[in-house]
């Protein structure tokens, strides 16, 4: 019986992961330009954050990885992939490390169960995942995307502006939503099973 319960639990975790990944992928077809150069909102980071905090590190990493592979094949090959190593770093790896948010799963759920908002912890652990993603894009940007920089601009400065800007834009998106939708976030982060 215990085995059956366990395998049902992992099937639920897996199914949620598939739904979240599909949602994250679908959201990338919604317009997401910030209006500032190629700084972009990545709406899928919101469901991914919730999923990683709800189900923990390993499911978070796995869902991020699959999201990255999907994004690479469905969108990246249209211009975002310059060579195999850069493609690997900026898609499966950079999207995968978003799952590091799951490092906060136990602490965030404990805080919420203790009747707290969990807001500070949600923001802190989301920042870890977002920072890991945009750090990889920053490194890749400095090495591979320099030719897109305005003339005479250092590629590393350019990469810092674009990828640091995207990190900040997505942190603002997360913070605003986590504050406005705190009650909903809490309900989504605590699993019923
Ligand atoms: C300066 C610069 N420009 C473009 C890229 C490529 N990049 C940045 C962020 C996210 C992604 C994945 C697809 O959303 C990519 C390919 C860069 N790293 N740096």
TrEMBL record:
Listed GO MF terms: thiamine transmembrane transporter activity
Transmembrane segments: 12-30, 36-53, 60-82, 88-106, 118-136, 156-181
Protein keywords: Membrane, Transmembrane, Transmembrane helix
Gene Ontology CC, one term: plasma membrane
InterPro entries per the UniProt record, alphabetical: Thia_Transptr_ThiT (IPR012651)
NCBIfam families from the UniProt entry: ECF_ThiT_YuaJ (TIGR02357)
Protein name: Energy-coupled thiamine transporter ThiT
Species, as recorded: Candidatus Companilactobacillus pullicola
Gene from which the chain derives: thiT
